[in-house]
């Protein structure tokens, strides 16, 4: 792809590419559905196992053994379910986020008089594959972490003689933690994927410089990111912030974006 140069000789700033909120919502919905199904199954089967053994709770080893056996079965079942879902869900998300970022950047270029058609270059494919694999791992980890913690809750309930109501309450709290993590994954990965493909497209177009645009959102904005607002940085290298070179949208919970700068004749 030929490198872009401003026809006026002056640098041209482009409208920043923001992460598509619809894609985040769709990804979160897919993750929520998996988590909800897992929660219903875990609560149902553990409740059934607990009720069968409630007279013997804290009196002998049979209740603990029965619940441990049930947890093994549930863990195997739901880890397999998440493993089966991870690849197609992650692939769909990566495809959608890449497509949305390309459309947004292409429209920003068209607004300034440039006509560009993006191709699946080697660099773009590398980013796509990396995004898929990272999200496959994250999706699998949702079930793994949740079920590991549930195992601990069940065993503590048995050894401490808690009733079923207390166990279900603990399971509900852990469910809330997992739901929030799924929401974070959807939001954060959407920001990261958008930022990464935008950077690859910038490089493919020969765009060397960009300006940092702070999101001005979030309850706890990073002071260093606020201070970076409006400052130029090297697209290949990133901006030195808090001791490391980073680009907008790369760090967890970072919603900052890049303003691409098309160079003039003498830049």
Automatic annotation (TrEMBL):
<feature type="compositionally biased region" description="Basic residues">
    <location>
        <begin position="210"/>
        <end position="223"/>
    </location>
</feature>
<feature type="domain" description="Phage head morphogenesis">
    <location>
        <begin position="148"/>
        <end position="259"/>
    </location>
</feature>
<dbReference type="Pfam" id="PF04233">
    <property type="entry name" value="Phage_Mu_F"/>
</dbReference>
<dbReference type="GO" id="GO:0106274">
    <property type="term" value="F:NAD+-protein-arginine ADP-ribosyltransferase activity"/>
</dbReference>
<protein>
    <submittedName>
        <fullName>NAD(+)--arginine ADP-ribosyltransferase EFV</fullName>
        <ecNumber>2.4.2.31</ecNumber>
    </submittedName>
</protein>
<keyword id="KW-0808">Transferase</keyword>
<dbReference type="InterPro" id="IPR006528">
    <property type="entry name" value="Phage_head_morphogenesis_dom"/>
</dbReference>
<feature type="region of interest" description="Disordered">
    <location>
        <begin position="210"/>
        <end position="230"/>
    </location>
</feature>
<keyword id="KW-0328">Glycosyltransferase</keyword>
């Amino acid at each position: 792809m030929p490198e872009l140069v401003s026809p006026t000789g002056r640098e041209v700033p482009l409208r920043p590419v923001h992460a598509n909120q619809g894609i985040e919502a769709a990804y979160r919905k897919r993750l929520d559905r998996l988590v909800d199904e897992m929660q219903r199954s875990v609560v149902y089967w553990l409740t059934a196992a607990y009720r069968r053994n409630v007279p013997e709770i804290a009196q002998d080893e049979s209740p603990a053994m029965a619940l441990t056996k049930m947890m093994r079965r549930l863990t195997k079942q739901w880890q397999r379910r998440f493993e089966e879902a991870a690849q197609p869900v992650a692939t769909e998300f990566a495809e959608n986020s890449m497509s949305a970022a390309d459309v947004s950047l292409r429209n920003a270029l068209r607004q300034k008089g440039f006509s560009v058609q993006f191709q699946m270059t080697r660099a773009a494919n590398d980013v796509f594959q990396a995004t898929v694999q990272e999200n496959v791992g994250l999706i699998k980890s949702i079930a793994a972490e949740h079920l590991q913690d549930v195992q601990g809750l069940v065993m503590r309930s048995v050894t401490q003689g808690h009733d079923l109501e207390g166990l279900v309450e603990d399971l509900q709290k852990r469910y809330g933690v997992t739901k929030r993590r799924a929401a974070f994954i959807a939001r954060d990965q959407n920001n990261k994927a958008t930022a990464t493909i935008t950077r690859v497209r910038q490089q493919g177009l020969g765009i060397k410089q960009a300006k940092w645009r702070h999101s001005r959102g979030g309850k706890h904005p990073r002071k260093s990111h606020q201070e970076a607002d409006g400052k130029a940085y090297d697209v290949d290298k990133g901006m030195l912030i808090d001791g490391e070179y980073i680009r907008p949208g790369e760090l967890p919970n970072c919603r900052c974006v890049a303003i691409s700068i098309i160079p003039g004749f003498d830049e």
